[in-house]
Amino acid sequence: MIRELRHQKIIELVTQQQGITVQELTNYLKVSAMTIHRDLQLLEEQGIVQRVRGGVVTGTQKFKINSQKESCGYCGKACSPRTRLTLFSDSGETILACCVHCGMGLIQKGNDLKGGLGVDFLYETVVDLPGGYYLFQPQIKICCSPGVLVFADRQDAERMQQGFGGKLLNFEELLKSFGVHRDF
Ligand SMILES: [Zn+2]
Ligand SMILES: [Zn+2]
Fold first, then answer.
1. Tens-digit pLDDT profile for residues 136-182
2. Domains in the chain, start-ordered, CATH in brackets?
3. Which of 105, 156, 164, 183 could cysteine-pair with 74, CB 3.0–4.6 Å?
4. 26 CA distance to ligand 2 centroid (A)?
């Protein structure tokens, strides 16, 4: 398993379970504890997870993604840390998109993209894209059009929908809204 995919899997597992042991991670991912420790160190340096005795946590505390300025792989604009998507390719590349709009464009044309992360609009925490909730075309201007807000939590998305309108979608529905018909 390539490193980026493994990192993504780790983030998924840590987020889903609000914390996980190194032992569990080695079982799930079938790699050595040494490899897991190296991965966790890198992810911790990026502020995505926090290592604790024997394991790693996230979720209860809100960890922020680094706010590095990089350009969108689709439109070339600078990626805002609030709206950007990080996509992973089979070959181990990481491709950034300025927002969901451009992320969908990249997914549509890049057949080797496998998985990705977004940023929760309210808390700026990491959201595993397939598990996220999306507010499609709310009445707020965000990056490209159609605008889409990303949320880890359905209730947050619903609350924002009450204030700003838009259509609440899961990831599958989001793909369809952008005319993407491929597995991701
Ligand atoms: Zn873009
Ligand atoms: Zn954009």
1. 999 988 899 999 999 999 999 999 999 999 999 999 999 999 999 87
2. 3-57 (1.10.10), 85-177 (no CATH)
3. 105
4. 37
